[in-house]
Amino acid sequence: MDLNALTAISPADGRYRGRTNELALYFSEFGLIKYRVRIEVEYLITLVESGVSPLADFPKNQFAAMRQWYQKFSEADALWIKDSEKVTNHDVKAVEYFLKKKMAELGLEKYLEFVHFGLTSQDINNTSVPLSIKEALEEQYYPLLQQVIDRLNGFAHDWKDIPMLAKTHGQPASPTRLGKEIQVFSERLEVQFAQLKKVPMSAKFGGATGNLNAHHVAFPNTDWVKFANHFVNDILGLDRSQTTTQIEHYDNLAALFDVLKRINNIIMDLNRDMWMYISMNYFKQKLKEGEIGSSAMPHKVNPIDFENSEGNIGIANALFEHLASKLPVSRLQRDLTDSTVLRMIGVPFAHSFISFKSTLNGLEKLLLNEAEFEADLEQNWAVVAEAIQTILRREGYPKPYEALKGLTRKNEAVTKKSVHEFVETLDVSSELKNELKNISPQNYLGIQLVK
After folding, report:
1. Of 117, 204, 218, 394, which has the highest C-beta tally within 10 A?
2. Known catalytic residue: 440?
């Protein structure tokens, strides 16, 4: 069968391809090959700029043409490299041969052996992968996460004055405001977003075992550490790890995956709360013509977007967890387990994207049911007991907690009437009684935290 959206094994490339398509440029096989070509080209240009003597007469006016090799990299180019790999059985070597072919076409045969000069394949892989992640984050992930945060902040502002019965342990608790409950999630996401941006995008670049052996033996008078730092930090915009084995140690990449996992967990927490609010009838959902909520029950409008998001987050986090725990561990200089695992990085990103977009869809369908908020508050006058007993404590009233316990812990409903009758039994001033009677579930809301 030919590969397409219907025959793909992974739903990220099949059913959900429309939600993940933008990630293909970074995490597909095509994307990885393109990044390898880019690293090799920029490395050769930087080598020329370094002034090593055999490249002193390299025609710098060819730099722009060389950069076109990755700027206009095509599927035909990628297929040429894949066909070459069938012969070499080495993916990075096939990229080297592709570039040597391109250089010959420009008449640069004299300099062919400076393609991939002194490098091992991991110098290319361990710069290509973090660069692809960095650009995927900046160009795709950050804007999508910001959409989620902005939508939540919008709700927090719109609903900042909506009184709401809080639930602790599933039981009625001190009232709150709906806007503040939403802001809890946006603020958590903003904190983790800031931490995400601070994780260094580390890269390894140091030859076969990390010591720049080949570079140093060929040109012992060149400061190769300075060269490598300049190339990785300044040209590629990454953060070069100074002391490595053949591979990057991946500790910061593990830290990155841990932050991404925390962000996903916050969104999962949001999904579950929204699911609960819908089940409590706090929200209804916008209907779409032609959609079916249940194949058996015509009345149902299921919270499918929040459920879809939760399921995809579970898959994403399982993979992020494996990546974070596996990649920093390797035998001696290196084993090949990191190579196959690195190829999976796009998969948890894809499932995260599916979940973000599903959550956004779910949020857009919400219809506030203010009447249910009001009814829930009115049916739970017992929650003002905390306020009454706290004021009585302030006044030095004897055993106020125990007094309120007698009011509220009965097998009968606590109502406005019963609360006010209880207040009248208290041996306090009429002014204090009026203060206590003015407290209601609708106004016992604490500080307004949403600006």
Report:
1. 204
2. no
